Amino acid sequence: MKIDPENPADLSAQIASAIRDGIISGALIVDQRLPSEAELSEQFNVSRPTVREALKRLAAQSLIRTQRGATGGAFVNRISFEEAYSQQITTSTLLLSMNAVSFETACEARYALERACAPLSAKRRTADHLATMRAEIHRQSQPGLTDEAFCASDVAFHRALVDGAGNPVMSYQLAGAVEAMQPLMNMITFTARSREEIVTLHGRIADALEAADGTRADAALCDLERYTLGLGHDVMAKRAENRAKA
Amino acid sequence: MKIDPENPADLSAQIASAIRDGIISGALIVDQRLPSEAELSEQFNVSRPTVREALKRLAAQSLIRTQRGATGGAFVNRISFEEAYSQQITTSTLLLSMNAVSFETACEARYALERACAPLSAKRRTADHLATMRAEIHRQSQPGLTDEAFCASDVAFHRALVDGAGNPVMSYQLAGAVEAMQPLMNMITFTARSREEIVTLHGRIADALEAADGTRADAALCDLERYTLGLGHDVMAKRAENRAKA
DNA sequence: CAAACATTAAATGTAAGACATATGAAAATT
DNA sequence: AATTTTCATATGTCTTACATTTAATGTTTG
């Protein structure tokens, strides 16, 4: 693991890569302490700042954590679901916003994956999950809500649905799909009428999950997808119209 | 964006965070050049190494790329699907291996998500996707194959299935779910009998997709999930047995 | 003897200055 | 006019130094 070619380009990247491989392969165990920066710089025959750059790269991926002080150092980090969530979300969000992914494509992916959670969530959702969903539905029906707050509540509702499946791996995977849609959804101006429609559909979903009826939940999600897609189309059409005027 | 509290802890993390926010919020556009390291260090009132550590953090997330030379510098990077894939995969793999996720949980998540692709893939898969799947099935029926190679081919088969849905966002999301399972699958010793069974099930999936029959593909995936789960249980049981002996 | 306090050592965090190297653009030469 | 040379700029790296945090050690005192 501790080798380094003579290639004098991007030493810090190479070192980061070597350590990363050690972690992935299991040669470095969780909570194990890496050698100190001084020792690493000796091992790799580079200066301490170079080692530090490498360590910062790994810290950015939550692969290590550092601690100051006498017993400090860099430790292999047990990547938590929370950290993985947030990385997933930033990556997904940027991927969508930077690559001109169409509303349809993102929407299709999101609902296809979410529908995969529906039958599991119908079986396993707890009273807690249902309560969260009902609370978000109630919030969504408040008249004074801004569009952003409405979207945020929408995300919270859908997260409760996904978490109801009781499978943390699915929650993690879905985090990206659900949250990354929010910027796209934020572009939509929700009329009173459309909010009402969405609240109704959310209610149908919650009812189905409460009745442990996965099929009905799936159907409601399909309807919601269709409706959301329609809203998106309207917005895009209006934008095209405005562009034509200008 | 260019502010920094007096908190003298983790300056490089704060700077990275500030720039990251700028990218996410859209204040910094793709391909836009950041100020030079010297300028940044002046703006933030820190030294150049500190700025560099911050930039390396961002580079590790593929948020920026750097270029040497006269017109060089740090540029906001358009995160490609490829890069997002590989980040997804390392994060997912580590998350699973470090958090004692059970084989059942991972398996359930993977097949639930994969089944979400089935109906879309039945509609849209190209001849290319089918050819890849057939080729992998053929490879899987070769007798001399190692277990690792068998698993790798399995992953390739399932990726073709997922890609067949023609939705890059789904392919991205699924990359983690499918590839992160591989280390868990690699622990399984595949007998000739079990390989035969899996190849048969893969054949059924390919047939269903060729016939554009999403329902049949879904059923075959369900069977495959059940069978895989059974294999996993056998392995775990044998391990427990061996532990009891020792 | 024990507890509170001070000291110390080891590690990361930050700074400053220097040199190496890559690279595009301008200037000089043929 | 085309080619070569020079040069300025920016990143990549090294060296050295100091600041800060933190736990262990040593010391003093009740």
Chain-wise SSE layout:
The structure is a homodimer of 246-residue chains.
Chain A: H1 11-25, H2 37-44, H3 48-60, E1 64-67, E2 73-76, H4 81-98, H5 103-124, H6 127-140, H7 147-163, H8 168-179, H9 182-186, H10 192-210, H11 214-245
Antiparallel strand pairs in A: 1-2
Chain A binds a DNA duplex (30 and 30 nucleotides) through residues 8-12, 36-38, 46-50, 52-53, 66-74.
Tell me about the largest β-sheet of chain A: 2 strands, antiparallel
Q: Strands of the largest sheet of chain A, in order across it?
A: 1-2
Strand % of chain A is under 5%
Counting structural domains of chain A, the number is 2
What do these coordinates show?
Two copies of one chain form a homodimer. Chain A is mainly alpha-helical. Chain A is 71% helix and 3% strand. Chain A is built from eleven helices and two strands. Chain A has helices at residues 11-25, 37-44, 48-60, 81-98, 103-124, 127-140, 147-163, 168-179, 182-186, 192-210, 214-245; strands at residues 64-67, 73-76. In chain A, strand 1 (64-67) and strand 2 (73-76) form a beta hairpin. In chain A, helix 1 packs across helix 3 (48-60) and helix 7 (147-163) runs antiparallel to helix 8 (168-179). Chain A starts with 10 loop residues before the first helix and ends with a helix. Chains A and B meet through helix 1, helix 3, helix 4, helix 5 and helix 8 of A and helix 1, helix 3, helix 4, helix 5 and helix 8 of B. The first copy, chain A, binds a DNA duplex (30 and 30 nucleotides) through residues 8-12, 36-38, 46-50, 52-53, 66-74.
